[in-house]
Amino acid sequence: MKACPLKTVLAVTMAVFMLSCAGSLKGSKEEKPAYFDRLEQETLARLIKEYPQSEQQLVEAAGYTIAEKTTVKVPFVGVGEGIGLVMDKASNMRSYLQFAQLHVRFRSGGPGDQPRGCLSGSKKTA
């Protein structure tokens, strides 16, 4: 059996630690929809204020997605999590989502250095 390199063990350990420390949307069933309503209203108002042409685009769009994400990065590893909503204007239905990401970088520094691995996942929440 081949031994795991120390970098790999440290990266996985840090990722698990950071994911365990990451928070999620807490609150009662009544508080969560109110949070999403506020997130939607504030985000759309800010979007229209900063980009006035977006108001017409929103009117013509079939729907939109609004997400809030938190990311923590340390050398070689980054983790992120977020929540959001998807609005389907045709059916006037909302879907709520929760997502997580894990980025792993196998080298550091230098121009054009990009994450070498990325795992993403999402789930629909009630």
Biggest sheet, spatial arrangement of strands: 1-2-3-4
Low-confidence stretches: none
Spell the H/E element sequence.
HHHEEEE
Number of strands: 4
* Radius of gyration, in angstroms, nearest whole number: 19 Å
The general outline is elongated
Query: What is the residue-mean pLDDT, rounded to a whole number?
Result: 76
Give the % helix: 25-40%
The number of distinct helices, counting runs of at least 4 residues, comes to: 3
Distance between the termini: 44 Å
Helices and strands: which structural class? alpha+beta
Task: Domain count, please report it.
Answer: 1
The major pleated sheet works out as:
4 strands, antiparallel
Instruction: Quote the beta fraction.
Output: 35-45%
What would you note in describing this structure?
With 126 residues, this protein is an alpha+beta fold. 34% of the residues lie in helices and 36% in strands. It has helices spanning 6-21, 31-50, 54-60, and strands at residues 63-74, 77-88, 93-104, 117-125. The radius of gyration is 19 Å and the shape is elongated. The model has no long low-confidence stretch (mean pLDDT 76).
